[in-house]
Amino acid sequence: MKNIPNILDLPFTQLNWIESGTFPFQGGAEITFETGFYAGCYQVTQELYQTVMKDKEPPSRFKGKHRPVEQVSWDDAQAFLKELNIRIKLKDGLQFRLPSEAQWEYAARANKDFEYSGSQKLHEVGWFKENANDQTMPVGLKEPNGLGLFDMSGNVWEWCEDDWNKEINDHPKNGQPLKKNKEDIRVFRGGSWSNDEGYARVAVRDGYLHDFRYDNFGFRVFRY
């Protein structure tokens, strides 16, 4: 598979192909992906969000077309992806989606045992409370991880497709999203500009209501 170049001719929208493989999800049960998938190199920017949703003003506290969109809920992300799939038709039979939690962690780890995505030192790869000057930062300014993905640790939290479940052993062993929780809580990963560095560790996982919006919540596009 080839990487997908800038979608809608906008910067910071490339997706890289991630080869299938096996890894210990959360250091426990092994996940084996049956096929590879595409991962967005960057968090969805305000420019991309506005272009797809045709909004006059993207829903973000910190304005800037190359900053990540924030103050978006899981539901908002789904509405964006629906429109994006209408706008872009590729002949690969895949859909733009939020990543499964397993896909997110696999891509963030990039076959390395780093504390953060791409490094043992968060300053090298991510924006967090200590270095972000109390705001989001334009995407792609820090170093990428080994798969060419930027800001997987820090800047804004990233929604995943999965229903929240505290028990990691319940996750599908093929890496697909977990869809069995009767509650309205969805997974998010990665840490943000407003959090201490510990929250940006690749291993950190949490969940919140699907309609929750805040200025440190955004998302990243995958395709599978």
Task: Briefly say what this structure is.
Helices cover 16% and strands 17% of the residues.
Can you offer a commentary on this structure?
The chain has 224 residues and is an alpha+beta fold. It has one domain: paralog of FGE (formylglycine-generating enzyme) (Alpha-Beta Complex), CATH 3.90.1580. The chain is built from 4 helices and 10 strands. The longest helix has 14 residues, at 74-87. It is globular, with a radius of gyration of 16 Å. The two termini are 12 Å apart.
- Pairing-aware structural class of the strands and helices? alpha+beta
Q: List the helices and strands in order.
A: EEEEHHEHHEEEEE
CATH homologous group name: paralog of FGE (formylglycine-generating enzyme)
State the name of the first-level CATH class: Alpha Beta
Mean pLDDT: 96
Spatial sequence of strands, sheet with the most strands = 1-4-10-5
Ends apart, CA distance between termini? 12 Å
Q: Radius of gyration in whole Å, from Cα?
A: 16 Å
Query: Low-confidence parts lasting 5 or more residues at pLDDT below 50?
Result: none
Task: Kindly state the number of beta strands.
Answer: 10
Task: Return the CATH topology.
Answer: paralog of FGE (formylglycine-generating enzyme)
What portion of residues belong to β-strands? 15-25%
Percent range for helical residues?
10-25%
Largest sheet: 4 strands, antiparallel
Query: What form results from the Cα inertia axes?
Result: globular
Total number of domains: 1
What's the architecture in CATH terms? Alpha-Beta Complex
Instruction: Note the total helix count.
Output: 4
